[in-house]
Structures are given as C-alpha cells and as structure tokens.
Specification:
five-stranded parallel beta sheet; about 325 residues; 11 strands
Length: about 325
C-alpha cells in the first residue's frame, strides 16, 4: 500500500499530524507512507521514523529572494508529476475541515482514493486538531486512540547546542517570545520581569531575523533588548535558531516551555515538555489547539496578549512546577 499525507499549513499544524503518521505506521508497518508538506514546515518531520519520504514544495509567499515566481511554480508542477507516477493508493488531506488547496494538489496526483473532510461536513468543535485528523485515519482502519505529538531531535545537533550553553543550571526553561499574530505578542518588559523570577536557567528563543522582513518578520531586536535588560544575575542563553531542526534540538535540552500558542509550543509538546502557553481567550482555540497530552497551563488575556500580567504567568508556572516536581 502507498499512502500520501498532505499537510500544507503551518508548523504546529504539521506537528499535530504526527500521531496520525504514527497510527498509520502501526496499522500498516509494510506500507510506503509519505508526506507532502511545504518548505516552511518540512523540518517538523526531520528524523521521523514513521514516514518513508517527505516531499516538499515552496508556497509562493515563502520563496526566497533568489527564487523566481515562474521557477517556483514549475518546480511544484514537476513535483506533482513525479508524485502522480508513484501511483498512491490513498491520499489523506490531514486537516480538521475542508482543505480546498490540499484537494487541488491531490487531484493532480490522481491517487486511487482521496480521504478528507467534505466541504459540507461538520467536524465536532470540541475535538482537538489531533483527534479530528485521527477520524480520517479511522477511514483506513486506524482505530487506536491518538498518541502524543512526536518530534525527533538529531543527537549530534543537540550535542552541539549543549556545548554552547553556559555551565551551571541544573535545569533550563525555554522562553519563546515570538508570534506571527500581533495580538499575541507579549511586551519586552513583561518577558524581562518573568525571566528574573524563574528559578532556572533560561533559554531565550525567538523567530530570527529583522522585524521588517515581509516574508517572515523576526524578533532579533526584541530578543537583544530582553537579553540586555534581564541583567547579570540571570543565567540566560539566547539561542538564535535558524532552522526547525535547531529549534527542536535546543528545546530537547530544556525542562519546560513558556510562550505563546504557535509552532514552537507544539514542538515543545512533541518533545514531552510541560507548557505554559499564552492563548487567545476563545474556548474553541483552547480546545482545538492546546498542548496535546503534556502537563500544561493556559493563560489568556481579556483582549490582546499585552493584557496578560506577569503575575498571571508566574502563577501558572508555579502551578505547573508543582505538578511536574
């Protein structure tokens, strides 16, 4: 059997598909299981033993400056032609809802069967994204309960990062400061105050690059300000991770994660880390996207992230520490 799983969205979306991939591998140990992803999220599947191949295309909005629009389109068409020749038996559109763009890709590949949610099909709103995708797996006989998210850091890469970390702290807490959504960005001064209260070494993480980058706005300036203002009494390791593989490796060296809902949070959950997450104050968001199968505390504002107080986060951290001690 040849199965292709399409998940063409953001980083956390693909991390949440890893229980489905594990379930497919358990049900069909001899099958060829592949994934079609984009250049932005592909690093999520680095080292994943449940997939035999990862096929990557570049979205137009993600292309590098040296990549032309026409060249990017033709590269995608070549990939789809190559996938069509592989004669997949099943393509799974791994998304908790109708995936119009994924369906268009699947139709070009012309598999024997396409599995996904119909545009008129209503997914139960109380389901987590992981649970919704496992319903698609059930159509291929994957009936076991979904397991945890799974990330696979490369040991040599983790060892390289460990060698760069300052000696001393018995435990490290990852503090991630970036969010693609402006309303989820916590102020610099709040992060500084939080870091000063944590009884642990702090690994500072952020989306690298300048804030004015139109493709992937970065937080280099905010990270530098936090590192400078935190003070000498804090053991702080600013870790500028230029790839998802590096981010995964650094997080694997940490004991817990604090930061906004997003890709890094789901990667942390995929490594089994307890999580304190800043979440939009909407019940469906918390239900569908909370850190899956790890101890966690969710902190929500009345309006935007600036409304979350340092006291709210430190209290959540205290509660989480008591649970994982």
């Amino acid at each position: 059997m040849r199965i292709l799983v399409i998940r063409r969205d953001n980083i956390g979306d693909l991390v949440c598909a890893t229980p489905l991939l594990a379930g497919l591998r358990e049900r069909y140990p001899q099958a060829h299981i592949a994934a079609l992803v984009n250049s932005y999220n592909a690093g999520v599947l680095a080292g994943n033993p449940h997939v035999d191949a990862v096929h990557v295309y570049t979205k137009l909005k993600h292309r590098r400056r040296e990549e032309s629009l026409i060249g990017t389109i033709f590269a995608r068409l070549r990939l789809l032609r190559a996938l069509k020749k592989q004669a997949f038996d099943h393509v799974i559109l791994a998304k908790s809802g109708f995936d119009r763009h994924g369906l268009a890709l699947a139709r070009r590949i012309k598999p024997g069967n396409i599995i996904g949610f119909d545009k008129d099909e209503r997914v139960e709103p109380t389901l987590h994204e992981v649970e919704a995708m496992m319903q698609l797996g059930a159509r291929l006989g994957v009936t076991q309960a979904p397991g945890p998210l799974r990330m696979f850091p490369a040991p040599p890469r983790a060892a390289q990062w460990r060698s760069r970390m300052p000696p001393g702290p018995a435990k490290w807490v990852a503090v991630h400061i970036s969010s693609r959504v402006a309303s989820r960005v916590w102020p610099v001064e709040h992060f500084v105050s939080l870091i000063r209260t944590l009884n642990a070494g702090v690994v500072l993480l952020w989306a690298p690059g300048p804030a004015e980058d139109p493709r992937h706005p970065g937080d280099d300036a905010r990270a530098a300000a936090i590192a400078m203002q935190a003070g000498a009494k804090v053991t702080l390791f600013p870790a500028k991770t230029l790839s998802l593989e590096d981010l995964t490796a650094v997080l694997s060296l940490c004991r817990a994660f604090i930061g906004p809902d997003g890709g890094a949070m789901h990667i942390a959950a995929g490594l089994g880390l307890p999580v304190v997450a800043f979440f939009t104050n909407l019940p469906y968001k918390k239900q569908q996207w909370h850190p899956w199968q790890v101890p966690h505390e969710l902190v929500s504002p009345e309006s935007d992230a600036a409304g979350i107080t340092v006291e709210q986060v430190t209290s959540a951290w205290t509660r989480l520490e008591a649970r994982i001690a």
